[in-house]
Write a structure and sequence with these properties.
Blueprint: E1 3-6, H1 8-16, E2 22-23, E3 30-33, E4 45-47, E5 53-55, E6 61-69, E7 73-83, E8 91-98, E9 106-112, E10 117-124, E11 127-136, E12 149-157, E13 161-166, E14 169-175, E15 183-189, E16 194-197, E17 201-204
Antiparallel strand pairs: 1-17, 2-4, 3-6, 4-5, 5-16, 6-15, 7-12, 7-16, 7-17, 8-9, 8-15, 9-10, 10-11, 12-13, 13-14
Length: 206
């Protein structure tokens, strides 16, 4: 049997009440920057009543929820680039997060840009490994004249594979053992990007 969880909703109902938008860090979301000396202004990470999160421009950031996803599952999230600055920047899903903030930290991420390209990477400690370099794909939506674009990303984890899809079209596949998948989930975005993330839908698979 499959079950679906709308990730942001429980946090909103239990902690936010009607006082939205609200700083996501005040209701359990954890923000990490690639550069430990970087900082984000208050109000950069705003949760809205519908469970979406709007993130303003600033340094590279990982935005972790309090939820973990293990076993076989599918993550789906809508990513709307509202302003990509001077050139396209990536935003998308974090998954498989373990040992956050420790030398043994590791996680994977799947990003999309407004030029219809996607990226899959893995972090282990201070090192990152490209699992699928920026690749343009027809499944992706391109930015309009105002720099706005909308894409739906999904990551499906099975016993053997991890599959990556943009707008319902599979764009890449990796062996599960080569891509950390069990652990915390959240959002990632690159510097100088303003983006709105929909709530992460977590669907448990057999």
């Amino acid at each position: 049997m499959r079950s679906t969880l709308l990730l942001s909703l429980p946090l909103i109902l239990s902690a936010c009440g009607p006082n939205l938008p609200q700083d996501a860090r005040q209701v359990g979301w954890i923000v990490q920057h690639d550069d430990d000396s970087a900082a984000s202004e208050n109000g950069r990470f705003l949760l809205h009543q519908d469970g979406s999160m709007e993130v303003g421009q600033g340094p590279n950031a990982d935005v972790w929820s309090t939820i973990e996803s293990n076993g076989n599952y599918r993550l789906t999230v809508d990513v709307t680039h509202l302003d990509s600055g001077l050139h396209p920047h990536g935003a998308g899903i974090l998954f498989g997060g373990r040992d956050r903030g420790q030398p043994t930290e590791h996680y994977s991420y799947f990003l999309v840009r407004g030029d219809r390209s996607f990226l899959v990477k893995m972090r282990r400690g201070d090192a990152t490994e490209v699992l699928a370099n920026w690749t343009e794909h027809d499944a992706g939506a391109a930015e309009d004249a105002k720099g706005v674009t909308h894409n739906r990303l999904s990551v499906e984890v099975t016993a053997s594979d991890t599959k990556f899809a943009v707008n319902g079209v599979e764009v890449h596949r990796l062996p599960r053992q080569g891509c950390p998948a069990d652990g915390a989930i959240g959002y990632r975005l690159v510097h100088d990007l303003r983006v709105r993330f929909g709530p992460i839908q977590v669907e448990r698979l057999p």
